[in-house]
Amino acid sequence: MDTLSVDHLLGIKYLNREDLELIFKTAATFTEVLSRPIKKVPSLNGITVANLFFENSTRTRTSFELAEKRLSADVVNFSAGVSSVSKGETLIDTVQNILAMKVDMVVMRHPNPGAGIFLSKNVPAQIVNAGDGAHEHPTQALLDSYSLRRHWGSVEGKKIVIVGDITHSRVAISNIYALQMQGAEVMVCGPATLIPKHIGALGVKVETDLRKALNWCDAANMLRVQHERQDISYFPSKQEYVKLYGLDKTLLDSLDKKITILHPGPINRGVEITSEVADCDQSIILEQVENGVAIRMAVLYLLASKRMN
After folding, report:
1. What pTM was estimated for this model as a whole?
2. Which of 10, 190, 261, 277 could form an SS bridge with 283, CB 3.0 to 4.6 Å?
3. Is 6 exposed, middle or buried (0-12, 13-18, 19+ CB in 10 A)?
4. Do 33 and 146 fall into the same domain?
């Protein structure tokens, strides 16, 4: 199969295993392109992509913009904070105005879960979800899996623990779907107050003891605490969180085996992981950043291919 089963990337939940394999295979081609002296290909020449970010983002937005420019797309950037949205304009008004400019694809980050789905039903452009509330962040999960596959060869049969604020994390949910689809075992670990009550229904293991979780896993994806999505305090203090769920080099070196460390960023150094862990040889955090551009190029290219067929 050389086309995706979907017309939009709204979440990992809507993809199948063949979609994942096609995205990873395409990303591998673009990884090779990005290592060349001239890193640009004409694949999206004539396609206009609008980046709509209704929430602050530096890494995801930059990564998408770079991916679009590497594919030779025309790029329109839209920041909700400095637009008519602050004057009360609705999401649909904003998008209709942008589509009047004949935009082919929209990459959107929005605080409301399901915003991308709403958009896909109301406008003729293809939608890429760059994060919708605490719902999904599909390209982050894809680049996390792609990074592990490049590191290991495959994630099938591997054990991955996702540590931290699971309740407010769109990265966690997307990763659970993507990893399980590829045959990996997934565990979540964090304070009981930051683990959704019924998450076990997704077939994941639940652990509140960090050392036990780390001894179980082959890789640990260390999430940051999402203070901006919390309306109350979910643990007594930052110091207590660091003591119980922060990963430092002493704990890492004391484990039964060498594990791989991931982090979706931005890192709160000294909170979920120390600088020493972030920069050590077991960390693939910088590879995740590099792989993010190739994965986003693959997604945009494959969706645009469906549009052109």
Report:
1. 0.94
2. 261
3. middle
4. no
Q: How far apart are CA 181 and CA 156, in angstroms?
A: 9
Cα 179 to its chain centre, rounded Å, is 13
CA distances from 63 to 20, 69, 289 (A): 19, 10, 8
Location of structure tokens 């929430």 = 55
Report phi then psi at 122, rounded to 5. -120, -10
Q: Check whether residue 36 and residue 49 sit in a common domain.
A: yes
- In the chain, the number of structural domains is 2
Residue 4 maps to a domain:
no
- Over range 250-268, report the average pLDDT: 95
Model pLDDT for residues 97-147, shown as the tens digit of each residue: 877 888 999 999 998 899 999 999 988 899 999 999 889 999 999 999 999
270 and 300 assigned to the same domain: no
pLDDT digits (tens, 9 = 90+) for 220-250: 999 987 644 344 355 557 888 899 999 999 9
Specify whether the CB–CB gap between 131 and 115 falls below 8 A: no
